[in-house]
Specification:
13 strands; 5-stranded antiparallel β-sheet; 8 helices; 8-stranded mixed β-sheet; alpha+beta
Length: about 300
């Protein structure tokens, strides 16, 4: 896995020490529990990170070892799959990685490529090299339509080529809690195939919005980042995001439902707001949208 940024000293400190929660107070970082990267131990005994001219091998027992290498323009993560069982694998009670496992993981990434680029800010292209030697490349492009509304296109190249288009609505929550940023973006699928949307914390969770649209914000997720917290001040913050997202869409509802602006027929556009009974937060979104739209 390679990306174009180079580690800072703080990045190195965070990655070599599990569970530091070094990103917890940083509203601009993805990840806050200090354990996500170490999930790679389910696949490998010793992940290797190269950033700039530093190469560090991370071992859960022996610690980190560093050497100087030929510089690269970015950061590379290498995971040598655990093909035969080891003490670490047995300790984690995980099996070895087979060729079939590798193929299944690749398929998951291929299927999610367009979703992975839906709300990224610094990444516009993802290239995936598959076990069979072929590649898939996903690209995102944004066209501003005015008043916080934009058209987002994500294309995936390579056997077969495919793409998807969204209408997005962006807003900002004033005075967010400490360690949270206030940016909220709603993505409305514009390719004529409405489907249940997902909650994103930059990258997708396994939680449905309960609507045919997706919402990205600095939610308070559960520790496994699969769902959202429901209780206490964290649950209230998550509810607030849904309400603010609904208000933002209601504020520009005329543009969002105007086929001349978005290219989406009205009958298709109204399906975005068809709520399912599985999410009480969807009701907060619809109520806020309705209040704002009526004022328009």
């Amino acid at each position: 896995v390679t990306n174009p940024s180079v580690f800072t000293d703080e990045d190195w400190r965070r990655i070599v020490t599990p569970a530091t929660r070094g990103k917890y107070d940083d509203a601009e970082q993805t990840g806050e529990f200090g354990i996500g990267f170490w999930g790679s131990l389910h696949l490998t005994d010793s992940p290797v990170v190269t950033s700039g001219s530093d190469e560090v091998t991370l071992h859960p027992v022996h610690g980190a070892t560093k050497r100087i290498v030929k510089p690269i323009a970015g950061t590379r993560f290498e995971f040598a799959y655990r093909r035969t069982q080891t003490d670490i694998g047995r300790g984690l009670q995980v099996r070895t990685v087979t060729a079939e496992d590798e193929a299944r993981m690749a398929l998951v990434f291929v299927n999610d490529l367009s979703q992975l680029l839906l709300f990224t800010r610094a990444i516009d292209v993802i290239t995936l090299a598959l076990p069979d030697g072929t590649k898939r490349r996903a690209r995102r492009s944004v066209t501003e339509l005015g008043n916080g509304v934009a058209s987002l296109d994500v294309t995936v190249e390579g056997a077969p080529d495919r793409g998807c288009r969204y209408v997005t609505v962006a807003t900002e929550i004033p005075n967010p809690p400490e360690s949270r940023h206030g940016r909220v973006t709603v993505a409305l699928p514009a390719d004529g195939n409405p489907a249940p949307g997902r909650v994103f914390v930059t990258f997708p969770t396994e939680t449905s919005t309960g609507l045919n649209l997706s919402i990205n914000a600095h939610f308070r997720p559960t520790n496994d980042r699969r769902s959202l917290q429901h209780d206490g001040e964290h649950g209230l913050w998550n509810q607030r995001i849904f309400a603010v997202a609904g208000t933002a869409v209601g504020r520009v509802i005329e543009r969002v439902l105007d086929e001349a602006v978005t290219g989406v027929p009205y009958d298709s556009a109204v399906q975005w707001f068809s709520a399912t009974p599985t999410s009480g937060r969807a009701g907060l979104f619809i109520q806020a949208l309705d209040v704002e739209a009526r004022q328009r």
